[in-house]
Amino acid sequence: MYDDHPRQACSLGPPAACLIDRAEKSVLAMLIAIMATALSACTPTPLDNATSFTRNGVRFTSPEAALEARRTEAEISLASLPTETDPVLGKLRIVIPDQDRLRPYAASRLSDQSRRTPVEIRYLVSDGDLVMHIDAEALIRTHAFQHSETIQINDTLDPDSGDADFVLWFQIAPQPYSTSDAWTGRWLVRRVSSPAIQPVGFDAGTRPLSTAAYASFLKNIRQAALNLGGKTMSGANPLATSAMIKTSGSGVIVDERGHVVTNDHVVPACRSIHVFNGNHDVEAVVVGRDTVNDLALLKLPMATPRAAVTFRNGAALRAGEDVIVTGFPLPSLLSSDMSITSGSVTSLKGLHNDTRMVQISAPVQPGNSGGPLLDETGAAVGIISRTLNPEAVDAALGAPLPQNVNFAIKAEVILPFLSANEIGYERNVATRRISTPDIADKAQKFTVRIECR
C-alpha cells in the first residue's frame, strides 16, 4: 500500500484511496503509541524519580537523599568507635546477601500491603544493602578480628567459609511454619571447626546507626567467637574454663521421654549443658535447633515421669488476658527455687510488629528465658524469650521505658517445631481457671533450670 513517497501516492491516487491511506496511517500511529506506552511501563522507575520521600517522619527530596542521610549518620557513628587492641585470632568472612535475596525480605517487612510500592521496596532493598555493608565496615575498621573480608552472594542460607576461621552471615530464609510470604533475616556466627551456630545482633534499646548500636554489635560478635572456642591475639579466652557458666536459663519438659524446649540463645555453644530436674543435675544434649525462631530442643539421658507441660488447645491469646511466668531468674543472686510472676498480655505482637511474639507485663529477669508462659488454666501459651533494658532505651531515646516490657514466643511457633522433631506433646482441654498457687504446683513438675558451661 505504501511506497517511499506516501504523500505523492496519495495526491496522485483517487480520493477514496487517499482516505484509506490516511486511515491506515492513523491506525499505525495509534499502534505505535500503544506499544511505546507499554514499553515505558516495563522500564523500572529510578529511585531518584520520586519528587519527595518521607522516612520516619522526615521529608527528603528523593529516596536517594534519604539513603545518603543514613550513610552520613552511620559514618559519623563509625568514626567514634575505638580500635580493638586485642582482636580475635584468625580470619572472619562476612557474608552479605545480594539485592535479589534482599527483595523478598524487604517486601515482607511491609506488613501494610498498600505500602508495597515499587519505590518503597526498592528503597528498603537499597537501605538493607547499605546498612549491611556498614555493619561489615564496622568490624573491619575496628580490627575486631585479626583478618576480615566481605563477600556478597545470593544464597546466604549456609554460606561456604572459604579459608576463614569464622563466618558471620546475614541469613535470609522463609519464615518456618508460616503460610504467608513472610521472610526472616538475622546475623549468625559459626566457627569452622565447630557445628554450633550462634545468633548475634544489636542490643535491644540502642538507636539504629548509633555508636552505641555498633559497639553492642561488635561486642556480641566478639563474645560469640569466644563462646565458640575462639581466642584473642594475646591468647586470652575468658571462657576457657570448662566449669564456667556461660549462660543460664529455664526450660520446659514437653514429653515423658525427657525432651526439654528452651531458647536457642540459652544454649549457644556449650561444652556441656546441665539441666536441674528437681533435685537432680543431669547432662543434656541438643537434638534440635531453630535459630530463626530462637528455639532449641534438649534430650535428657532418662525418661521424665514428672508430668510434662500441656499446651493450650483452642482459643488464641487475647490482649488483656492474664498470664503467669515461671522460671529461674538470676540463680546465682536470687533463690535457686523456681519463681513465679504474673501479669497480662499487653500486645499480640513483639518488637517491630513481630507476629511470632507476644508482649507481656509479667516481670522477667535474666534466667527466665526459655521458661513457660502459662494461662489461667495452667496450660502453656508460649515460652519467655527476651526483655527490654529500660536503662539502654532511656540512654538511646532520651525517654524512660516503662518497666516490664517483655516478650514470649507464641505456642503457634513452638508446636510446629516440636512436631518437626517428632515430639508428641499434649494439648489441654480444660477451661476451668485455677488459683495461682495451684498453677505454681503444676509448673514445678515441668519447669527446669538450664546451665550452659
Automatic annotation (TrEMBL):
<dbReference type="GO" id="GO:0004252">
    <property type="term" value="F:serine-type endopeptidase activity"/>
</dbReference>
<dbReference type="InterPro" id="IPR001940">
    <property type="entry name" value="Peptidase_S1C"/>
</dbReference>
<keyword id="KW-0378">Hydrolase</keyword>
<keyword id="KW-0645">Protease</keyword>
<dbReference type="InterPro" id="IPR043504">
    <property type="entry name" value="Peptidase_S1_PA_chymotrypsin"/>
</dbReference>
<dbReference type="Pfam" id="PF13365">
    <property type="entry name" value="Trypsin_2"/>
</dbReference>
<dbReference type="InterPro" id="IPR051201">
    <property type="entry name" value="Chloro_Bact_Ser_Proteases"/>
</dbReference>
<dbReference type="InterPro" id="IPR009003">
    <property type="entry name" value="Peptidase_S1_PA"/>
</dbReference>
<dbReference type="GO" id="GO:0006508">
    <property type="term" value="P:proteolysis"/>
</dbReference>
<comment type="similarity">
    <text>Belongs to the peptidase S1C family.</text>
</comment>
<protein>
    <recommendedName>
        <fullName>Serine protease</fullName>
    </recommendedName>
</protein>
